[in-house]
Specification:
By secondary structure, the protein is of the alpha/beta class. It is built from 15 helices and 17 strands.
Length: 451
């Protein structure tokens, strides 16, 4: 009798595979696994979302709005903050670990076949992300879901998720990131991310730099698609700060939608909301002349959560976590801190992975930093504390930078500094620079609560 697989066994097996930060430009393994499983990703419509920043938040908004219209939804995002089950959700809830194991046991023999064939041909086994994507597509087929919202992992054309044929392809703003795999220019990165448009039925394009916009438009032409573009076919009419988030007036593809409360901070989240609305309109039938039901739209946006995206995790002093990890994300974070909060100063806990643009990240955030505590995420890919401290001191000055060997220690130092500032409720703390770092902090806080 085979030994029963525990959730810990499953995550350990996945962790033993090729890590998801490494890609090999081929869909051969994914296509082979899907074919053996009778192509589960083709049994339901898909909304696929690519881009540099804003993918997860936009995906969560699309999911929440479509669920408010009574659809049974599947949501696949990455990476996770604390637990891998966060990545695969049904109707807004992470799947149970036992369910993940159950479906894995069903698909594992087929993945073994693909592994064996690939190795025999001189290639690698399926990667962590490929195996997890296959698991997600299978979970959604078994559910079954009415629609799956799928966030691209890295790039677009060769991403493991791209064995689907999306009903709607969404491309959020494109900037420089993952240059070692996607290319070192905006044009090259845009060409890779534009790959999701080729087999789609509709395209929603977020605000883009001209270089990226021309690439995306050319791909739409080759795919025979007339795209919906931010600030052209859809956009934001008004965006105002509100208690606990912001109030939006949006113009969509089918009409205007006023007084939309979004419980997320930052101008960039308003842009994400506009893209999400256009994606939902496209999916639900943008050819109609009637707007979507305003009450359902309001309910969907009001119910949105986006963990780790300018998320307040503590008060007195206010502590926020944000998974920005590149200069584009840092600029959006800086703008949100300036527009959505009235802190007299910001203490930043910063930790990055070694393949990120640390100089650009710190420079982008520098105008709002009163003091930086640099630390190191729990990852073999982390940028060492001393290397990041040297960069931060060159940009911010020696007196504005401290070091901490771990994320929990860095958070404690930041809170103590805020408390000692004498500015009661005026100093804010933000933890940023890496998804891994934010996960480290959330786990540390959870342990304190439990102890």
């Amino acid at each position: 009798m085979p030994v029963a697989l525990t959730p810990e066994d499953l995550w350990s097996q996945l962790d033993s595979r090729w890590p998801e930060n490494i890609i090999e430009p081929s869909l051969t393994r994914m296509a082979s696994a899907a074919a053996l499983l009778n192509d589960p990703q083709l049994t339901y419509p898909v909304i696929q979302i690519a881009g540099t920043n804003g993918k997860s938040s936009t995906a969560r908004m699309v999911e929440s709005v479509l669920r408010s219209f009574g659809l049974r939804t599947g949501l696949f995002t990455s990476p996770h903050l604390v637990d891998p089950t966060e990545r695969i959700q049904i109707n807004g809830e992470p799947i149970a670990a036992a369910r993940a194991v159950e479906v894995w046991n069903e698909i594992a023999p087929y993945i073994d076949v693909v592994d064996s064939n690939s190795v025999a041909d001189g290639g690698p086994r399926m990667s962590y992300f490929e195996a997890l994507t296959t698991l997600a597509y299978s979970v959604f087929a078994d559910a079954p879901v009415d629609v799956a919202i799928i966030e691209v992992g890295l790039g677009g054309t060769w991403d493991a998720t791209s064995i689907c044929q999306p009903a709607v392809a969404v491309v959020t703003p494109i900037d420089l990131d993952h240059q070692e795999y996607l290319g070192d220019t905006i044009e090259l990165i845009a060409a890779e991310k534009a790959g999701i448009i080729q087999n789609s039925s509709a395209a929603v394009l977020g605000p883009q730099m001209p270089a990226a916009a021309s690439i995306l438009m050319a791909k739409c032409v080759s795919a025979g698609i007339i795209p919906s573009r931010f600030a052209v076919e859809f956009g934001i009419d008004a965006q105002n700060l509100a208690v606990g988030g912001q109030l939006l007036n949006l113009h969509g593809l089918r009409g205007t939608y006023n007084e939309i409360f979004l419980p997320l901070f930052g101008e960039h989240q308003g842009v994400n909301a506009a893209m999400a609305l256009a994606a939902c309109e496209s999916f639900l039938g943008a050819s109609s002349s009637e707007p979507l039901d305003i009450d359902a739209v309001r309910e969907g946006f009001a119910s949105v959560t986006s963990a780790g995206r300018l998320e307040i995790i503590r008060s007195g002093p206010t502590v926020l976590v944000d998974v920005a990890h590149n200069p584009h994300g840092a600029r959006a974070l800086r703008a949100a801190l300036e527009s959505s909060f009235d802190f007299v100063g910001v203490i930043a806990v910063i930790g990055l992975l070694g393949d990120k643009d640390a100089v650009g990240f710190v420079e982008s955030l520098a105008p709002v930093i009163s003091h930086a505590i640099v630390t190191q995420p729990q990852s073999p890919r982390a940028l060492p504390v001393r290397d990041l401290a040297r960069i931060a001191r060159e940009i911010l000055g020696d007196q504005k930078v401290s070091e901490a060997e771990s994320a929990p220690h860095a958070l404690d130092l930041a809170i103590n500094l805020a408390d000692q500032s004498g500015e009661y409720s005026g100093m804010g703390v933000v933890v940023t620079g890496s998804v891994v770092l934010v996960g480290d902090v959330l786990r540390a806080i959870d342990k304190k609560i439990q102890s």
